[in-house]
Amino acid sequence: MSEIESPAPQPRGPADHNVREQIVVAAEEHFSHYGYEKTTVSDLARSIGFSKAYIYKFFDSKQAIGEAICSKTLEAIVAAVEEAVVEASTPTKKFRSMFNALVSTATDLFFNDRKLYDIAAHSAGEGWSSARAYVQRIEQILTEIIREGRESGEFERKTPLDEAVHSIFLVMLPYVNPLLLQHNLDLVEDAPVQLSNLVLRSLAP
Amino acid sequence: MSEIESPAPQPRGPADHNVREQIVVAAEEHFSHYGYEKTTVSDLARSIGFSKAYIYKFFDSKQAIGEAICSKTLEAIVAAVEEAVVEASTPTKKFRSMFNALVSTATDLFFNDRKLYDIAAHSAGEGWSSARAYVQRIEQILTEIIREGRESGEFERKTPLDEAVHSIFLVMLPYVNPLLLQHNLDLVEDAPVQLSNLVLRSLAP
Questions:
Q1: CATH for A14-59, among 3.40.50.720, 1.10.3720.10, 3.30.1490.20, 1.10.10.60?
Q2: What is the C-alpha to C-alpha distance for residues A137 and A40, in angstroms, rounded to an integer?
Q3: Residue (of B156, B135, B162, B118) closest to B81 by Cα position
Q4: How far is B15 from chain A (nearest CA, A)?
């Protein structure tokens, strides 16, 4: 295609990727001071020193920026969970490590900076795709652990796999979803251990 | 004592009890229209047609009225749970009935009228005595069911009783506490059955 036939925008190369990342980092900083709810794209543009139009070249809306921040945070939780699972030697230990890593990382990332919670709450409350992807990934990791435990004979096999996974996921949900986790912060030391013990009793062959 | 020696307020007899009840009923009606947060004792007095001073003869504060409404609601939930438990024949059935009755009654009472949720949220969030008494009563009913099941051989006895009860209570908590229940309303059909199954698997001897 010649340049005359194609007045399309320039391809988004590494430079564009860097600007996106720069906007996300600056927005994360801005939201954590002023909150997600109260900030407009204009406020954000002023604080970063970009024009509003320039930001809109990279993100369709404030929600799109919020989604990018949320994705980053949720991916960090998933990475911590995956690392914890890989390091554990048996399905029992994997389950305990998973639950612990999930609760401690989520608590750190969402609540040590309350304003990031603000974005997470929007994400979970409104079913953003980043939140849905996160829930699916956690369910998938859980499924792999349960399946491995059933195959090795460490866990019972009478209950249908999907039923076992779903009910264990329901037990974990109040610590996976930041909207619920905010009310459980005084339990995060105790609950993962107690609930892991209960779940593992339910999985005994 | 002669009347001259004793200018104390009249003893609180059945008439006073009726006025208290009248204030509670009127306040419940008023709060469910306008919300607990936004209503002052003056608003309430105006709407009932009593003077503010007269209301303060019966209740120290708006919170005291809120507590009375909350107590009534929580007592209704406990009564429904107790009835469900009495009607069930085995500890397994008692546990299932308890969980079901708890979730369905709490959902009805708190969320079919969202403004009552408003009071319940204050109660649970601020640790009002009515909320603490409710949690204790639910834990007590649960303890009785687990103990009965252990004695009859229906449930395992290896786990210390208090540990078993505590972990099961943690599983139920997101459906007991209205602050958490509000985020679980799309699960109230499915979760009590799934979680009861899991808990009962963990209790198998």
A1: 1.10.10.60
A2: 31
A3: B135
A4: 41
CA distance A195 to chain B (A): 6
Helix A191-203 / helix B191-202 crossing angle, nearest 10 deg: 80
The band of A18, judged by pLDDT with boundaries at 50, 70 and 90, is confident
Q: A64-203 sits in which CATH class?
A: mainly alpha
Q: Looking at A160-164, A183-187, B187-191, which range is the least confident one?
A: A183-187
Q: What is the reported pLDDT for B32?
A: 80
pLDDT of res. A13: 57
**Banded model confidence at residue B114, pLDDT cuts 50, 70, 90:** low
Name the residue among A185, A161, A160 with its Cα closest to residue A174.
A185
* Structure-block tokens of residue B78: 């406990």
- Domain ranges in chain A? 14-59, 64-203
**Confidence label for A113 from pLDDT (cuts 50, 70 and 90):** low
Q: Tell me the shortest Cα–Cα distance from B167 to chain A, in angstroms.
A: 5
Distance CA B193, CA B36 (A): 33
Q: Read out DSSP for A38-59?
A: T--HHHHHHHHT--HHHHHHH-
pLDDT band at A2; cut points 50, 70, 90: very low
Report helix angle A191-203 to A161-176, nearest 10: 180
Q: Which CATH class is domain B69-202?
A: mainly alpha
Does residue A8 come out as left (phi exceeding 0), alpha (psi in the -120 to 50 range) or beta? beta
Q: Which two tokens stand for residue B34?
A: 């306008």
Which of B194, B196, B197, B199 should be substituted to probe chain A, the one whose Cβ sees the most A Cβ atoms within 10 Å?
Answer: B194
Q: Which residue of B has its CA nearest to A202?
A: B202
* Residue B13 Rama label (left phi>0; alpha psi -120 to 50; beta): beta
**CB-closest option in B159, B183, B195 to A201:** B159
Interatomic CA distance for residues A53 and A45, integer angstroms: 9
Amino acid, single-letter form, for residue B28:
E
pLDDT per position as a tens digit, A70-111: 888 889 899 999 999 999 999 999 999 999 999 999 888 887
